[in-house]
């Protein structure tokens, strides 16, 4: 992947290990989002030391065996630690690139060219995009219209009969801080594991994952951090099975690795190289060219 940013080469600011590029007057907003992220991560990092004695840790990571892994990932995210993306010697840190105007932020991949702004505009539900295998996370204009942090409250409740989470998942997490966290988790997990082809953004799905899968699912980290930040107290009972039909409640199919005619073939399989997280439960008309 070759990235070019056509204007304002000096439009670069930093925040801990993070680089924020091409964001203009919005650079301070991204810095603030990273600052909010740092703040919500601190109690979660502390909580990992309790392992399964912590109710949210038990709910989203299941085994104390992984508490060091989870704690390390969250610590890395809070300061933007450098990591190796592959077997090369090069250490990289996340690079947040704003695409606020057409024709500026261009990606060249396998003979194709993508204008990131166009991708944002064509898919208004895309807010933050991660290009797997790289250190680049793109920020769409819509990001700046989102709440900086989610509204207070909106913790899930647990249905006694189904032993499932219920509630308004979007109200619970949709915000700059958690959209950013989700994609940054992909960057840090991507340094070590393959990304799954179909990611399901749903709290009952996240809860249902066995420990190892949970630690490799980006949304589990989002839910864990948000539940601690919001001091949520209701979790399914670990010693009771969940009823399967409840799993569809609040379910959102992530637009992970969706494809369009415009970017088909970029990986030879019709799969888009971009990862993002849908804002809505339904695909808009404009998304009809994208494969779910
Ligand atoms: Zn994701």
Automatic annotation (TrEMBL):
Compositional bias ranges of the Polar residues kind: 278-292
Positions of the UniProt region annotated as Disordered: 262-292
GO molecular function, one term: metallopeptidase activity
Name of this chain's protein: Lysine-specific metallo-endopeptidase domain-containing protein
């Amino acid at each position: 992947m070759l990235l070019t940013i056509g204007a304002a080469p000096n439009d670069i600011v930093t925040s801990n290990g993070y680089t924020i590029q091409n964001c203009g007057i919005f650079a301070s907003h991204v810095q603030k989002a990273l600052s909010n992220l740092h703040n919500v991560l601190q109690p979660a990092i502390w909580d990992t030391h309790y392992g399964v004695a912590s109710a949210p840790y038990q709910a989203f990571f299941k085994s104390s065996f992984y508490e060091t892994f989870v704690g390390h990932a969250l610590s890395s995210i809070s300061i933007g630690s450098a990591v190796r993306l592959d077997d090369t010697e090069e250490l990289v840190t996340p690079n947040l690139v704003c695409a606020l105007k057409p024709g500026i932020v261009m990606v060249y991949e396998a003979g194709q060219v993508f204008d990131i702004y166009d991708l944002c505009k064509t898919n208004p539900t895309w807010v933050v995009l991660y290009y797997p295998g790289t250190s680049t996370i793109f920020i769409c204009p819509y990001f700046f219209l989102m709440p900086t942090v989610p509204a207070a409250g909106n913790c899930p409740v647990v249905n006694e009969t189904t032993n499932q989470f219920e509630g308004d998942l979007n109200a619970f997490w949709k915000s700059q801080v958690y959209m950013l966290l989700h994609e940054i988790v992909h960057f840090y997990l991507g340094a070590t594991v393959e990304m799954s082809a179909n990611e399901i953004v749903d709290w009952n799905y996240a809860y249902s994952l066995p420990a190892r899968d949970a630690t490799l699912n980006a949304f589990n980290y989002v839910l864990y951090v948000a539940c601690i930040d919001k001091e949520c107290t209701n979790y399914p009972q670990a010693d009771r099975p969940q009823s399967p039909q409840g799993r569809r409640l609040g379910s959102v199919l992530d637009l992970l690795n969706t494809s369009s005619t415009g970017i088909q073939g970029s990986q030879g399989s019709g799969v888009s190289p971009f990862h993002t997280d849908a804002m809505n439960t339904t695909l808009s008309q404009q998304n009809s060219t994208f494969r779910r």
